[in-house]
Amino acid sequence: xxxxxxxxxxxxxxxxxxxxxxxxxxxxxxxxxxxxxxxxxxxxxxxxxxxxxxxxxxxxxxxxxxxxxxxxxxxxxxxxxxxxxxxxxxxxxxxxxxxxxxxxxxxxxxxxxxxxxxxxxxxxxxxx
Length: 128
Prior knowledge:
Helices cover about 45% and strands about 20% of the residues. The chain has a single domain (about 5-125), classed as Response regulator (Rossmann fold, 3-Layer(aba) Sandwich). The protein has a 5-stranded parallel sheet, sandwiched between helices. Helix 4 (about 90-100) links the parallel strand 4 and strand 5 (about 105). It is globular. The chain is α/β, with parallel strands linked by helices.
């Protein structure tokens, strides 16, 4: 089983980026590349070679689902697991994101102390 080390995190809000980076790097011990837009993520993802992508749903320009499809189209990222992060977690919305192919949906606002554990838990379920 491969270990989870490198996370590509796509989020347009600087405040949320900062909190998540601390949660994932300091608490979780992950290597994190933060991208502020879907377009930036698509440009930088292959060089970073993430083990997992954390993807905000609501972003200006290319939104989460659009970014997801663009990343899936890159050969190096075609199989990299994706977790969506969103405040909209009605059951039909969650179902929509998982139907696209996401592993899971993490609700926002998230708890910085447990975010890394949530991500690790989803990763573990995926790799059993």
